[in-house]
């Protein structure tokens, strides 16, 4: 399965919060709108949604990845919310459990932000984290 990196992401450690027990990942309305915008440009290419994963990187150990998804793996988790599809890589499922995905735009940057209650620490720039 070929994937293409499409966006940068930062991470924020947040206090524990209660989400619906079946919620692997929740998107804010801003994130839903941005995913719809991104996918509207790419639908003709056969992508079914965005795939969120984690990889070893950065000074704190892990960072998020965002790619286009063409298929859903057997053990991947699928989140459908407000007309968008997010595929969570099997290796990232426990890391992302209970996380809120947001899209934040200001004068200097525009990026997806993961508000993750499972994080124990982040690096100074916010690109990597530890669990």
TrEMBL record:
Pfam families: Fe-S_biosyn. InterPro entries: ATAP, ATAP_core_dom, Fe-S_cluster_asmbl/transfer, FeS_cluster_insertion_CS, HesB-like_dom_sf. GO terms for biological process: iron-sulfur cluster assembly. GO terms for molecular function: 2 iron, 2 sulfur cluster binding. Residues 25-127 form the Core domain. Gene3D superfamilies: HesB-like domain (2.60.300.12). NCBIfam families: iron-sulfur cluster assembly accessory protein. Belongs to the HesB/IscA family. This is Iron-sulfur cluster assembly 1 homolog, mitochondrial. It comes from Papilio machaon.
